[in-house]
Amino acid sequence: MSASESLSLTIAKGAEQHTVRSVRPAEKPQRQQRELSGKIALVTGGTKGIGKATALKLADRGCHVIVNYFRSRDAAGRAVDEIKERGVEALAIRGNIGNSDFHKKLFAQIRAEYDHLDIFVSNAALGAFAGVFDVTEKIWDLAMRTNAQAFLFCAQEAIKIMPSGGKIVALSSLGSHRCIPGYSAIGVSKAALEALVKYIAAASSCQGVNVNAVCGGFIDTAALKSFPNYEELMEEVIRRSPLDRVGTAEEVADVVVFMCSEGANWITGQTIIVDGGYSLT
Ligand SMILES: NC(=O)c1ccc[n+]([C@@H]2O[C@H](COP(=O)([O-])OP(=O)(O)OC[C@H]3O[C@@H](n4cnc5c(N)ncnc54)[C@H](OP(=O)(O)O)[C@@H]3O)[C@@H](O)[C@H]2O)c1
Questions:
Q1: Looking at residue 67, what DSSP letter applies?
Q2: Out of 57, 84, 190, 278, which one is annotated catalytic?
Q3: CB of 174 within 8 A of CB of 215?
Q4: pLDDT > 90 in the chain, percent
Q5: 278 is an active site residue
Q6: I want to staple 18 with a disulfide (CB 3.0 to 4.6 A). Which of 94, 111, 181, 225 is the partner?
């Protein structure tokens, strides 16, 4: 293995930080569409599901991609390898995005490695299932900190190192405006995220940065499989969906990547619903 193909592991000083660093391979694959060539992108939760699909599609278009994750180092290692196979740089940074002490460390590391950030995708999410009358302070805090507060504080850091033309995209879900059984705390945190998108978009416009949300319908990822009534839910979603199926992580990632491209320069402060028409029924 040559030096340029090597993969190295670094334990950073912060208690929750673990870095998997890879450098650009010697042979850069030829790709047709490299319209984001050389851009630096951060995808939180970029090691699984929709976040990983987004990270790989950004890499396909020429972005160097930083992925953040929390629990699974193996998945992070695999994501780094797959990003690197696309001929770009990859950096995985471990840390709990729901912990406000982590945000400054995350962006300090990005600044040290790359100096600036062109694209920030706020994708990582966590939450516990509970009916609205069973939501405890712990359940509330987990959802609000991981899904809404993390987006706010990371956007505050991202904007400091984002040049004109930068793009911020946050992942939302239909629970922000529909009542999904057991999803109350997560749904409310996603509603807060969508409201934040508008405020952050208005405040970022003078800097030439677009800020939007992509709101996914039911997408068959590990997160969906954690729903207590997964099988029943899938049947109901397929029955009600105009397109007779659930969506894929790649179908949501395609829209996220579009929102990160120049084609989305005239869209800001919006939430784009990507649900195969489910919310129409
Ligand atoms: N799946 C759906 O049906 C659906 C629908 C609409 C919207 N969405 C939204 O799309 C986004 C991605 O969902 P998904 O289904 O792709 O999720 P997923 O497959 O469960 O992946 C979640 C990712 O986030 C990371 N993560 C979780 N908690 C974290 C934390 N506290 N700090 C840092 N990283 C963390 C995970 O890494 P580790 O496992 O290593 O911690 C993983 O990489 C979420 O915002 C979700 O609300 C999903």
A1: E
A2: 190
A3: yes
A4: 84
A5: no
A6: 94
Q: What pLDDT was estimated at residue 223? A: 87
pLDDT at 26 over 50: no
Task: Kindly give the number of the ligand 1 atom that is closest to the alpha carbon of 247.
Answer: 3
Q: For the chain, give every domain's residue range.
A: 9-25+36-274
What percentage of the chain reaches a pLDDT higher than 70? 88
Q: Is the pLDDT of residue 271 over 60?
A: yes
Identify the CATH number of the domain defined by range 9-25+36-274.
3.40.50.720
CB-CB contact of 79 with 67 (8 Å) = yes
Q: For residue 243, what are the CA distances in angstroms to 50, 81, 219, 248, 276? A: 20, 34, 13, 12, 6
Model pLDDT for residues 55-72, shown as the tens digit of each residue: 999 999 999 999 999 999
Task: Provide the 10 A C-beta neighbour count for residue 273.
Answer: 21
Measure 44 CA to ligand 1 centroid, in angstroms. Answer: 8
> Active site includes 69?
no
